[in-house]
Known about the structure:
The chain is an alpha+beta fold. Among the domains are: about 5-110, no CATH class; about 180-335, no CATH class. It is built from 17 helices and nine strands. The strands form two sheets. Strands 1, 2, 3, 4, 5, 6 and 7 form a seven-stranded mixed beta sheet that branches. It has a two-stranded antiparallel ribbon with strand order 8-9. Helix 4 (about 140-170) packs across helix 13, helix 5 runs antiparallel to helix 13 and helix 8 crosses helix 9 (about 235-245). The longest helix has 29 residues, at about 140-170. It is elongated, with a radius of gyration of 29 Å. The N and C termini lie close together (about 10 Å). About 35% of the residues are buried.
Amino acid sequence: MQENFLHFVWRTGRFDQQQLRTTAGHSVSLFRRGIYDGHAGPDFTNAHLRVGDTVWHGHVEMHVFASEWYQHKHDNDPLYDGTILHVVWEEDQPVFRQDGTRLPCLELRPLVHATLLGQYQRLIQDTNGIPCKFRLVEIPDLVKSSMLDRVLIERIERKADRIQEILDQQGGDWEQTTFITLAHGLGNPVNAEPMEQLARQLPLALLQRYRQQPLQIEAMIFGTAGLLNDKLKEDYPQQLIREYEFILHKHPFKPMPPSRWKYLRMRPIGFPDLRLARLASLVGHHENWLANILYSANPKEWMNSLEVGIPPYWTNHYRLGKASISSPKLLGKDIARSLVINVMVPILYAYGRARGESIWQEKALDFLTTINPEGNVVTRTWSRLGMPSKHASDSQALLELKSNYCAQRRCLHCAIGCHLLKNVKLSTSLQSKQMMSI
Length: 438
């Protein structure tokens, strides 16, 4: 049993409300069960009820076991002084107020229909990854679409929170924040963290002082990444080493450990060396990083701006010092789309939120509806279940729904799960209306 099931039952009134009595034997009449509050303090506020002959206005607090009142130290917390009813699954011990009076307690265990409890347990105990997968056909399209709208905003808000955190750390510098976010996106998913660390160690303002000297930008980036060493004998890496040693006299950078970069089980096109080379070229080609995002007319325009040339050396290399078959090293549509989703859209949204200008947030959401959805095992699974992705806003929402709700069994926080439980048909016959007694 989980407390959020009790919240659901109380909020929706899915329990037998006839002839209610406290565990002390007093009658209970519910006029208003209260307003759910997911923050600190009692679970439901502004409740209105009668216990015995006394009418109360105040809070309702819920626990699986009554003893959790003391485990959570509510007895010494003034936030709970206004509690008028303790609703529990089982009262394993009575609870008393600070003045010594007993807090009225209502047990839900004998009041919840066996059918509802069984449906709930089947959902949270499911091991298929998507607990309601076999019942999605029962869900109205409006319920599904409203839930996807909600989780999409939750996902973008979380990404915007991360950008705001970086912005605060960078003293409000949007250019550096955009640089760090783009570096993180270029490293996604395996090398995102070392790419971000590199961007934090190399101020964009400093790199841009060398915009007319691309070799020095490349030297600073590869040198700080810790990828320049004596084993590199080709001309281009040797040039980078000499430039880096010269630059160290003016800017004493601390190289990162080479072990930070991952190559195992990766396609060569995703190797960090290539991503670092592209990052260096972007520094040389772009001056106003934030404006390039804000004033792009559409995602395609911004994606095209990322398709900058990199040094000829990379035509037949995926890594420094290791030759490969000659091939053009383009950014590619999949990577560009990922950067729109994980860099462009969150930056737009975070910028609009920070400035209180919703036009940028609306632009971010609109952009997600103009690019193709991601194709991966999660979106393909949803598609087989009758929830295909038409564009990136759909795929992002479905990824969020799977990772933050289904995988964590948060069915009672999901509109789809709540709809299934709210519409469980409870028989009213005396034979089938047996309440759980275990």
